[in-house]
Design a protein that fits this description.
Blueprint (H helix, E strand, L loop, with lengths): L7 H5 L4 H11 L2 E8 L3 E10 L7 E6 L12 H5 L9 E6 L17 H14 L5 E5 L2 H13 L4 E6 L13 H8 L5 H12 L5 H8 L1 H10 L1 H14 L8 H12 L10 H8 L11 E9 L9 H7 E8 L7 H4 L1 H12 L14
Parallel strand pairs: 3-4, 3-5, 5-6, 6-7, 7-8
Antiparallel strand pairs: 1-2, 2-4
Length: 358
């Protein structure tokens, strides 16, 4: 399924791609499927699909972000599909987003959140999951929110994210929140969270580049393995909560980008298309009634007041952790899965959500 890593220099220095490739194929059952996207033709989508032994387990779609991939789901899948009388079990699907990993990329401009959401929903429907829930971080949180807005109620029954996503309070939509924001009427924790979010501006140069000149940085990423490594490795280190990355983990993570079907440049275009469509300020004011769960990790890039998130969606579950960063599914899989289980457990706030569960 995965393309051969022919980087002999790396292999000679100790990295065995074949061993990592075999490990991925052993632990992750992978497939590809053609998905027709309105106005964009057919994309061949790569995905991982693991079914629980519990017949009426909850179908769950895991959506990654940048600079992640389907590999982020590697640690949470065994926990999510686990059969136990003490917690719900899930049928898990984790895709490679278009332009990422081993999915093909769109060849026309204007492929925005609407299209990513369409791909995700059509993939789940094609697998027989007419009703399902979602989990996502980074772009995954934005895409799953888009899915809840477009397909909530009928197909998307609930969504859980580990990345806070909400626009600054709007004078017409949330006037009281805006007054509170301007007056800085926040708790000590909320003030600290806002300060952390503002401080991230110093590390957001990648976003400016990828959202304005994606092809320029794309040539560099596609031309130089060392450049690709430096561009992404810096994020793996600075965006996690002192996670002890091994060389094999890092090189495997980067290799998925290097050997992606569309090349490493394709993945960064999501920033450009998102910002061209208005970013946070377009299509993000409508309140989403679909049940929403939020997990907060202290070293996340953006930490917003929960009141902002509650103003934008029906938050039924919230939990704040003492450790963890941006790649929660990979850094803290037990904590993240624990939250998802609690959200959908018999005593949880999203139990049932019109789905058959144990």
């Amino acid at each position: 399924m995965l393309k051969q890593f022919c980087f002999s220099e790396v292999t000679m220095n100790g990295f065995d791609w074949r061993a990592q490739e075999a490990d991925l194929n052993l632990w992750l059952t992978q497939f590809t499927r053609d998905i027709e996207v309105d106005g964009y033709g057919t994309l061949n989508i790569h995905y991982v699909h693991h079914k629980s032994k519990v017949a009426n387990a909850i179908p769950l779609l895991f959506v990654h972000g940048w600079p992640g991939s389907f590999i982020e789901a590697k640690k949470v899948i065994p926990l999510l599909v686990e059969e136990s009388p003490d917690h719900p079990s899930f049928h898990v699907v984790a895709l490679s987003l278009p332009g990422f990993g081993f999915s093909t990329a769109p060849t026309k401009k204007g492929f925005k959140m609407q299209q990513y959401a369409e791909v995700c929903n059509k993939l789940m429907l094609s697998l027989g999951y007419n009703e399902y829930v979602t989990q996502g971080g980074d772009w995954g949180s934005i895409i799953t929110r888009e899915m809840a807005e477009r397909y909530g109620g009928k197909h998307v029954k609930a969504f859980h994210t580990n990345f806070m996503f909400a626009a600054t309070p709007h004078p017409f939509h949330q006037p009281m929140l805006l007054i509170k924001h301007l007056a800085s009427w926040y708790t000590t924790q909320e003030k600290a969270d806002i300060a952390r979010s503002k401080a991230f501006k110093e590390g957001s140069g990648y976003h400016v580049e990828q959202s304005t000149k994606p092809q320029t940085i794309g040539y560099s990423l596609a031309d130089s393995p060392v450049g690709l490594l430096a561009w992404i490795y810096e994020k793996l280190v600075s965006w996690t909560d002192s996670y002890p990355w091994t060389d094999d983990e890092v090189l495997t993570w980067i290799s998925i980008y290097w050997f992606s079907r569309a090349g490493p440049a394709a993945s960064v275009r999501i920033y450009y298309e998102f910002d061209k469509s208005g970013g946070l300020f377009v299509g993000n004011q409508a309140y989403i009634p679909t049940p929403h769960g939020v997990s907060t990790f202290p070293q996340e890039l953006l930490l917003l007041p929960i009141s902002w998130v509650r103003a934008a969606a029906n938050v039924v579950f919230q939990n704040r952790h003492e450790r963890g960063g941006h790649f929660a599914a990979y850094e803290c899989p037990k904590e993240l899965v624990g939250d998802v289980r609690n959200m959908f457990a018999k005593a949880g706030p999203a139990y049932g959500v019109d789905l058959r569960v144990n």
